[in-house]
Amino acid sequence: MLTDSQLFFQLGLIMLVAFVGAGVASKLGQSVILGYIAVGALIGPYMKFTIFHFTYVGPVQNTELLSYFAKMGLVLLLFFVGLEFSISKLKRTKTAATILAVFNLAVDMFIGILIGVYMHWPIEDVFFLAAIVATGSSAVAAKGIMEIGKLSAPETDFIIGMSVVEDFIAMLLLTIAGGLMTRTSGGPSNIWQLVSYVGIFYLFFVVLAVFVVPRVLRHIEVIKNDEMFILFALGIVFTSVALADALYVESLIGAFFIGMVFAETSMTERLKEKLMSMRDAFVAIFFIYFGMLIDPSVLIQVVPLLLLAVPLMLMSDILLTSCIAVLIGFPSKHAFFVGTSSAFRGAESMLFASVGGSSMGVRYSKQLYAVAGPFSLIMDLIALPLLKKSARLTEKLTVLVPGYMRFTSSLISRTFSKLIMPQSLHIYGDARRTTLPLWSFIISSAVAIFFSYPLRLIPLAVAALSALLSISILRSDLNSSINLINYSNIGVTGSSAPEILSLIMKLVKGLLAAAIMVIALTPIYLPLSLVPVLVYLLYVVRTMHSTYKRLMPRIRPLFPGKRYSLATSPYVSKNSIMSSTTFSRRESPPGAIVLRGGFEGGRNVAFIKLKKGLKAQKNSMKNGFNDGIYPPRVR
């Protein structure tokens, strides 16, 4: 038991070292979170070393009382995350942000699970490890975007939308984590009993948000006294945490959901203003406490894990997420920017490490603490310079992509951009009809992971039916809109619509089938689950190549038999341009002339846009297919 002097000495020391750590981290251009963790490790009970006969021992040896302050910091942090949950932000980015967030988190979780199984960790430990390496940090990403002055860029809205979806999914993962903990620490052992508790919990907050809060909000707003308002706010936060814990749901989820209930109401700004200082103080204590629990002797043990996790997560976030962003309609430079922003890590990783480390059923709690901090630091150190140079890197990487992939990706991107990306004129329809079956597929697939056979067959069957329904609706939407989409500046005419439809449907069917196969094979033998992934990747390459070969004979190149770069592009006369120009449905501004030609080896050598004085300009295609490829010069 700590004496009064020991308690206040610890609190004073923590606040002072937090000040120093935050200052040093800010000077180095890093997140203050990393500064808190570093100084926490220096004063914690595991820090002990000897230099020249001088032995240093961490001054804070008893962390029991600090754990309660740290828990309060987590509660307030999750409450503010809930307050930031914005349906209006999500509406602006619609389906695109949801697709990117779900894909990014699903692939990262799968890679994290593979790493945990490779390290021979138990299933509970594997789950928390996967969550640590998979969940991105919207706060650190926003800081990086702010540093390079792109907060007002259009793609930033999609990054914010992604963070909203990922935060919500992360809370669902925490709910699952709570279930794993209660089954190992005296909670409900029956899975259906646990599901019923979770259902009651979610139903309570739905009723609160839809029916109760809108009716009582005006009565709460009349509280003018700040002291009374703060007491009311803290009371509902802590009561929600207690309710979650009573229903065997991870207690922090209660803070998140009560924050969601008051998000985007007239009280949101006042809640932030009055509680922000308290949040900052207790959150600093949490991160310092987190640093205290890092055992330096364990850091050596997690080096192999870091050597696996860092490159795999960078590949997944930057390359795979960027590819998906291109396919759903982002320009390539914007797509790479979005993918790189998803590589940042921060408080969310610490959150899962803290929850996992305090769980009775987790064997490798010290390793979870030890991996979260260094992993976040390394990812942030790599992601920030990549974010700053994303445009230049995109140009270099685009050249490495085979021509047939660039061509077919342009077709897919042009198609999905009209269905998924926000449109000012809704003449192409949208993908909202597929939202319900797609979410049904995602949820049933996630539920299937936590069941063993034969019960696993039930959610797998629901996932398969949802996939079939999604495919049917998508085909119907594409059939009704694909003929309205203009592919002329990609060198493709309307007669190629059946080939484009076939390409998209083959890739979507293969993706959903591969996902179901992975979930089905995982409990049988985990390495076997990689087979559907590899088969699907080969199938994608083969399908793209065969589609390219079928469509290429229909495209007439303007300059046959030659390839041109900026330096070697030919000079063409005005008469040659006018004789080669095809006037069809074009997307150029009035008064512009579009030169429609074809492709040589996948390179676009004929698309130019002529303004006053016949000055050649780069094509302004929105799908990024022409990045780094230049038109003929005009004399």
SSE diagram, text form:
Layout: H1 4-27, H2 32-43, E1 48-51, E2 54-57, H3 64-83, H4 87-118, H5 123-134, H6 138-147, H7 154-182, H8 191-221, H9 226-246, H10 251-262, H11 268-292, H12 296-299, H13 303-327, H14 332-341, H15 347-357, H16 365-388, H17 390-400, H18 403-419, H19 435-449, H20 457-481, H21 497-521, H22 530-551, E3 571-572, H23 574-580, E4 593-595, E5 599-600, E6 603-604, E7 608-610, E8 616-617, E9 633-634
Parallel strand pairs: 3-9
Antiparallel strand pairs: 1-2, 4-7, 5-6, 7-8
The number of helical segments is 23
| Large-scale geometry | globular
CATH architecture heading of the largest domain: Up-down Bundle
Give the distance, in angstroms, between the N- and C-terminal Cα atoms: 87 Å
Proportion of beta-strand residues: under 5%
> What does the average pLDDT come to?
76
- Estimated radius of gyration: 27 Å
How much helix, percentage-wise, in residues? 55-70%
Number of strands: 9
Estimate nothing, just give the exact number of structural domains.
4
Which strand order spans the largest sheet, edge to edge or round the barrel?
Answer: 4-7-8
Features:
globular; two-stranded antiparallel sheet; three-stranded antiparallel β-sheet; mainly alpha; Na+/H+ antiporter like fold; Na+/solute_symporter_sf; 67% helix; 4 domains; transmembrane; antiporter activity; 635 residues; disordered C terminus
